[in-house]
Design a protein that fits this description.
The chain is mostly helical. It contains 16 helices and three strands. Helix content is 68%, strand content 3%. Strands 1-3-2 form a three-stranded mixed sheet.
Length: 412
Amino acid sequence: MRESEYCKFLYKILSNPEITKLDILPQLHPEVQNLINNNDDSNGTYAKECFPFLVVTSEHVVGISKEILIKAFMQAHTRFYKLNNASDQTKEQVQEILETSLVLLLIGSENNTALNARRKLVDSRNALGELNLITKVLTSKLKKHSKSPLLWGYRSELLTAHRDHIKLNCTNNRDFIELLKQNSHTEFEHIIAAGEVHYMNYYAWNYARWLTTDTCIRLSKVLQNSPNRQMVLESYLRSISRKIEKWCFGHPSDASGWSFFSWLLVFYVSERPESTSPSHIKQDDTLLLNTTIEVFKFATTVSLGHEAVWIFLRRIISDPLIISDRVRNSFLSKIVTYVDHRKNDSNAIFTKDEQNHLQDGSESANTPTMTIREMQMKRNAKMLDNLQDQEISVISSCIRWISTVSKIKKAN
């Protein structure tokens, strides 16, 4: 493949819907290069016709070495600006602008000129193809790309155009609702993938906020006069909540994900007709209560020392629109009881083998020396101290909030 064809082939590869992932390689491994050049790839692992772009057919992944990407950029830079400034553009030149602008974005995610050129050429009819292409860029390990505000903003524009196109081509509302929910869940998979690539990806989770809001607005419009409107909205938000809760439990220190999770629960409450008055909030709301209890258990057992989880609890417990005073006080009393139990029950900081040792005075087979047992006790005691400090911090902030609210009520 000639260097002048790098932009064309790269665009063709990334536009292929069968390719789902883009990786940047420091360089091509000599063994792989010799394998392809000498036709020794008997298993068909690599697509020879795409070389020097390394397409792993079985994994649906394309790998690009930095050296090849820079060579493609040198070709694309000059050609793009020459074509983009031309007054009259042929169909072939438009295609070349799409090819070269993609390479410019792979080198620099904040290239607004290249992005604006693509905006002019992409409409609702080909928005899905552009979405698939941008997905590979946002979920790649390219530096800063998954945190690019320009790319996430561009993605929201593409998704809006694509959803409008879906609406025009749907024959009935039921099909549109199913396609909309399916599209939303797919988008959340991409957001989660971007969150895996880059820690604290606030831009990805801000896009998730927009996505949730846009989806609920569209569902509300379609179901405006339907008695099932509330049920459909709650069902959708609950399904998203379960997905995000699972991800957050796997990433206890990612404050951006936990921040979105707390926003999602607040948004869920705001979508309910009862949310206009805190005193009328459902007392048996399983999503809110069960989620808070599960997060609290997680915080006190697994995620000791992860502040993001405790900030989540502070917000949920102290927000008057989420939990009523009665439920909040009940929950706080359970926390206090739990902390007192952990303080007073010495066995809570010992393992089962250590408890047996305290009871009968004999050493367990799993704790052969006193030194090991003492180290275990110190470790657990240290964890308990941290636990108590964090729990008391949560309780204190909530009590201060309740006290402030009470004073305001008395003043009024």
